[in-house]
Here is the input.
Amino acid sequence: MGGIPTCIASLEVLAHLNLSFNHLSCGISPRHEFTEKLLVLDLSFNDLSGPLPSKIAAATEKSGLVLLDLSHNQFSGKIPLRITELKSLQALFLSHNLLITGAIPASIGNLTYLQVIDLSHNSLSGSIPLDIDNRGVFSVAKSRN
Here is the structure.
């Protein structure tokens, strides 16, 4: 129980952070900006709430998050456009939240390495950008939106 300590983001060599199934609550502080060394961030199956963080990790053209799993929480609001700047992202899981405002950002199509995306069980509007479908993304889930 409790939140995520902000000091955890200052761990400069942290590559994998899995805090899933920990009953974490509160939101994610804007001060939680992980370095480009972080490859995997899994905060799924907690009670995290509030808006999705606008910037969760630093990214460069060749490094940064490969997997981001914020599914099965209580995040609300829009999908931040900054998530679409995580160029190395291969898997994005935002399912089972309260994302109720706005459309799926068309700029998600800019995630050229994306192989899996799950936005299901939210209340998002719009459709998955066509360039994702045409690229052969292995799994696209948008049901119940």
